[in-house]
Amino acid sequence: MDRRRHGEPYVYAMKGAYRLPGGKKTLSLLPTVPLMDLDNLKQLGVILKTPEYFVEGAAKCLQTISRHKTISCPFTIALLRHRGSAAVKNFVMKLLAKDWGTEEDDTARTYDLLTNENKALFWAQKPRSRDMHDALTRLYDKQVYQDIPLHYDAEERNMEKEVDGFLFRLPKSTGVIRETGRRMHNCVGSYCDRVRAKDSLIVVGYKDHTPKICIEVRRRSLIQAKLFANKAVSRVPDVNAAVVTWAKQCGISYNTTSDVGEVTS
Q: How many CB atoms lie within 10 A of CB 31?
């Protein structure tokens, strides 16, 4: 390259020769982009300056970029419409500079999985570029794992009691179960289908509005009684005693699990 022979730094020579978008981000990513991809990036830059052809042209160009033939283009085209050509150029540069499975790849794939309603909601939130991946992930989680109300009969509602400063409560929705799992660092979030099918009941013991105890009941028997991070309630005597008292008041067998110890007076 003539520019390189005259002593111009590589990144500036490549940027000039391929008429690539400027800026510090481009210059920092350029050394890691394979030469075979630079022609495609140059073509994309030309297409993005031609508004009447950008949808069809950009899609065709992106589909030919090596190592990314399996990536569909709805996110990139939507990004162009909502954020402009500079945002697309930066996004594609990151795609080309990294291996498969990067955050950018995941962003594009997750966007494709959203409903049209959630796609519109995503753009309405106006997320910053660095927040797009997390915003899309949150929308997809809500889309897949809907917050479904849970209903209980009178006998089940009788399990809601206040014992020794703990409020024992039945989750009002599957979202509450998943949130309990996140806050208590356990897998109770995966029990939503069991609870909806009435195969199990989940009871949460709160203190100062914080979940402290997570209980599974099946056929009037205690199956599990856990503290934070799946520790047995038997490890904390006063909590263990509260669970035993609660179980007795509800007519639930508590000697069916090793999580609960006997209480001696």
A: 10
Q: What is the dihedral of CA 100, 105, 109, 112, to 10 degrees?
A: -140
CA angle 215, 237, 204 (to 5 degrees): 20
Q: What angle do CA 100, 106, 107 make, to 5 degrees?
A: 130
Q: Which residue has the tokens 């939130």?
A: 125
- The overall pTM is greater than 0.85: no
* Average pLDDT per consecutive 10 residues, the chain (265 residues; last block may be shorter): 51 62 56 58 53 49 49 69 74 59 71 90 90 85 85 97 98 93 87 93 97 97 95 96 97 95 82
Partners of 202 in the beta sheet?
A: 216
Distance CA 138, CA 118 (A): 10
Instruction: Return the residue matching tokens 């609960």.
Output: 260
CA gap 257, 115 in Å, rounded: 43
